[in-house]
Amino acid sequence: MKECPHVPALPRPEPEPLNATCPECRALDSHPVQLRICLECGYVGCCDSSTYRHSTGHFEKTGHPVMRSFEPGEDWRWCYVDLLIV
What we know:
Elements: H1 23-28, E1 35-38, E2 44-46, H2 54-62, E3 66-69, E4 77-79, E5 84-85
Antiparallel strand pairs: 1-2, 1-3, 3-4, 4-5
């Protein structure tokens, strides 16, 4: 099974969220489907099921590899580099 080397390199504790929702969706008056938080910087963005896919855009701009679900009761993580749920 492939393992993700990016998770052990993440800051501890996790960063505080920079926003309560996706600021780009808010500016576009769009509704984010699900939110993700960047575990490197705390950016909060919408998922790929949302129209604008801002979390993926954040990864493409910054290279920050791991996002965590920012939905209540969920704590799974996604690594964009390794394409793994971690």
